[in-house]
Specification:
There is one protein chain. A hairpin with a 4-residue loop joins strand 4 (33-40) and strand 5 (45-51). The chain has helices at 20-24, 60-63, 65-69, 103-109, 111-114, 117-136, 211-225, 251-257, 273-289, 300-312; strands at residues 11-13, 16-18, 28-29, 33-40, 45-51, 81-86, 92-97, 101-102, 139-140, 149-152, 162-165, 172-173, 180-181, 207-208. The protein is globular and about 55 Å long. Strands 1, 2, 3, 4, 5, 6 and 7 form a 7-stranded antiparallel sheet that branches. The protein has 10 helices and 14 strands. The protein binds adenosine-5'-triphosphate and magnesium ion. The site of magnesium ion has 4 residues, from loops.
Length: 320
């Protein structure tokens, strides 16, 4: 049940206050959660994510274990979860650092700035760095997409913008074999890897590895290189006319349907002459990240190191 405050009242959650106005106007709304801006006694802003546990499928609460463990994770490129609080209705509140934007909105609102190659490559580096750290802690995100990547534009210690990976509702710990099972149905989206579409064999739930996150990061980088098309990465094969039957499918679905022959449309990038080599090297990294066959993909740490090399030396010639 949602903790309802009388219209005119603020809501106190632990040591944090959410104003009636902020309660009415969440900064984010998902299928089972709402995110509100909250303040502590000193006036510092936080984001309070309210997870309505009544609507969670029975075993989902168990699955939130990985989310709660995120409190122990501290990395500049991962949103800090300061604490979790159970309210009187047993609903869960996660108190996080407040961020200004999500990457999805940023793409739309700051198109001109997104055209800046240095900004793009810096975002890519930070995403890969956060992801490599998450994977080193044996956590697979499983729902990486621009709306789950947040940006802080103030109080940054590095560069102008600080990227923070967020929304760990579907995250999982990997088993000793580096796999995570999936008992939650995940809706297809652009950034889901082809293996998400593998049918269960003999009732067995398919297993996913860290490589699903690397694939998603690769497609996010692609969306950054082709910002005008980020919301419709048209699944069109280079050299082939668009296939209307595939128009509503995600790239991952097409890769799966085509028996994994299909590769994402990583076209030659139109960048200024100064950035051309670097942009094409990023394009190479995207190809290594988005192989249909998960085992061929590079790791998040390799991805971070390649992007760092391009950042340091835009004229580099990367070979795998
Ligand atoms: N720490 C934060 N600071 C600022 N805004 C945030 C923060 N966390 C989330 N948001 C905003 O709220 C949106 C939704 O949050 P989040 O992605 O965590 O959950 P969701 O996708 O709504 O939910 P679900 O967990 O149900 O999948 C984000 O896309 C972002 O715009
Ligand atoms: Mg989300």
């Amino acid at each position: 049940m949602m903790a309802q405050a009388p219209e005119s009242n603020d809501l106190q959650i632990g040591g944090y206050m959410i104003s009636a106005l902020n309660l009415r106007q969440p900064i984010g709304t998902g299928c089972m959660s709402k995110v509100h801006k909250a303040y502590d006694n000193s006036g510092t802003a936080y984001a309070a994510k309210h997870i309505d546990c009544q609507t969670l499928p029975e075993d989902r609460e168990k699955e939130l274990k990985a989310y709660l463990q995120m409190e122990l994770i501290t990395h500049e490129n991962i949103v800090k979860i300061h604490e979790h609080i159970r309210d009187e209705y047993k609903d869960l509140w996660l108190i996080m650092d407040f961020c200004d934007e999500n990457l999805d909105k940023y793409f739309t609102d700051f198109k001109a700035e997104c055209e800046n190659f240095e900004t793009k490559i810096d975002f890519m580096y930070q995403i890969a760095d956060g992801l490599a750290y998450l994977h080193s802690k044996k956590i697979v995100h499983r729902n990486l997409k621009p709306s789950n990547i947040l940006i802080n534009t103030e109080n940054c210690t590095t560069g102008d913008h600080l990227i923070k990976l967020a929304d760990f509702t579907l995250s999982k710990f990997l088993d000793p074999y580096g796999q995570s099972s999936m008992n939650t149905e995940l809706s297809p989206d652009l950034y889901k890897a082809p293996e998400f579409y593998f049918p269960a064999h003999g009732g067995k739930i398919p297993k996913y590895k860290k490589s699903v996150d690397v694939y998603a990061a690769g497609l996010i980088f692609l969306a950054m290189l082709q910002p005008m098309q980020h919301d419709c990465l048209v699944p069109q094969i280079e050299g082939e006319p668009p296939n209307p039957r595939e128009a509503t499918l995600t790239i991952g679905q097409i890769m799966y349907n085509r028996h994994c022959e299909y590769r994402p449309p990583v076209r030659l990038v139109q960048e200024s002459a100064a950035n051309l080599n670097a942009a094409n090297m990023v394009r190479r990294v995207i190809q290594w990240a988005t192989f249909a066959e998960p085992t061929y993909r590079i790791t998040a740490a390799e991805m971070r190191d390649y992007i760092n090399q391009i950042k340091q030396n835009p004229q580099i010639n990367l070979q795998q």
